Each structure stands twice: as structure tokens, then as C-alpha cells.
Amino acid sequence: xxxGFYTATSGMMAQQRRQEVLSNNMTNSLTPGYKQDQxxxxxxxxxxxxxxxxxxxxxKRNLSFGSMxxxxxxxxxxxxxxxxxxFVQGSLRETGMMSDLAIVEGxxxxxSGTVFFTVQNExxxxxxxxxxxxxxxxxxxxxxxxGLYVLDDxxxxxxxxxxxxxxxxxxxxxxxxxxxxxxxxxxxDPNQLTKNxxxxxxxxxxxxxxxxxxxxxxxxxxVQQRYLENSNVDTGQTxxxxxxxxxxxxxxxxxxxxxxxxxxxxxxxxxxxx
Length: 274
What we know:
Elements: H1 2-27, E1 37-43, E2 47-56, E3 64-74, E4 78-85, E5 92-94, E6 101-105, E7 114-120, E8 126-129, E9 135-136, E10 142-143, E11 149-150, E12 166-167, E13 172-175, E14 178-181, E15 184-187, E16 193-195, E17 201-203, E18 211-212, E19 221-225, E20 227-229, H2 235-273
Antiparallel strand pairs: 1-4, 2-3, 5-20, 6-19, 7-8, 7-11, 7-15, 9-10, 12-13, 13-14, 15-18, 16-17
């Protein structure tokens, strides 16, 4: 019976974690370039159950010895193994803002490959993002809304000197006659990246560095100025999944309550028979 408690409780915890991920997706459904997270559930390793018993040997001394007979396998619960971002491209939305940029991908050499803007925080750590909702700070630097610097292909912050600028489809920022290529990084396996709390992506330790997207002649992409990429969250589907997670949580909760009533009956009623 206690095994049933643990199994049902693990189911509640897994569905609660899944609900948190779905809620975060829904919260960011209007965040430009946001990539929804998907959860993968996995059962705990199977346990092989045996029944312990005694077998009598028909001899004068009436000997017996212990033995075990196989009953079968059982899973003792479920857990959220990992959350994986879905890198499917979102739709485009025209904003008319000079500093808004969107990456539009065509066919890629690797079906799961993705192109990112490259940004840098004040500590010098490089991050990657699909959110091109940029702005120009008081010093004329092109930055994200979180204050991270947008980098050029030499790894330096892009400074506009407060001037109007345009961005070509190849990703070159043109300011007062000068042409500054944006740092556009390509990953053939974006799942090697880890999403942080700012919805930025960073390389896992030991992972291969991202390459310049322009160095891959087979890669088709362009940059659209005055456009933003919408999130790829399907709000209708997410609502359905949230209801499903709630129902599954509720079912496991009822199982826990049923086990609790059974234990209460065993203690209060069966105990009196002794």
C-alpha cells in the first residue's frame, strides 16, 4: 500500500512540474522570439517482484526451505526527466520600429539547426537569443531590453552613435556609410544550449562553439528589419495541455486520498480485532 502512496505522489509531482512549464509558456506567449518548452515524462526503473514462500519436502523430518516465485514487473512512479525547448520558427509581426529585427530561416543543412543573435552581458558572458526586440541605450549601443549588448561578428558591441541605421537582409547594420555585420551564430543542434532565466541560451560546458551562420553556404536565412518573430506558443493547445495536466494531478490526488482512507480503516477497525 505504501508503494501505491509513492507512485501516486510521484504522479502529482510530475504533473505539477508539467503545469509550471505550461504556465510559463502561456505567460511568454507574447514574448518575441520565445521558444516554448516541452516536458518529457519517464517512469522510474521497473522493479521485478517476487513472492517469498516456504516449500515443504515430503520426508520424515518434514523439512522446508525458502523459495521465491516471480510475480512480474512494476513501475514505482513517474518523473519529469527534462524540459526541451521547441525551436520551430514563430510567425513574423511588423512593428515599424527601426531597432526591431527578426531572423527568417529557409532550408537548413540540418533539419533542427537554428540561427541566433549573439549578445553579451556586463560580465562579458556570451548569450544567444531569437528575440530581436532591441533598443538603443543612452550611450548609443544596440542592446536587448534586459540591457545585454548586441555583438558584431568581431565580438564587439554595436554602437550607433545615436544615428538612424538600417539593416540589410544579410544582417549588416549600415550606419552613416559604415557597414557592421551582426554576429549571427548557427547551431546544428540547438539542444546543446541551455535556456536561462532570461530566456537566453548559453552553451553547455564542453559543448562545441557555435559557428558564424554566414560561413555555411548551404544555410538559407535573412534578417528582417522592423519585424519581430512571435513566440511559437500555441495558446489553444497549451490550454488543453494545462487542463490535461490538472486532470491527471486530480486523479493521482484521489488515489492518495483512497490509500489514506484504507490505512485509516486498517488502523482504526482492524486494529480493534486484535
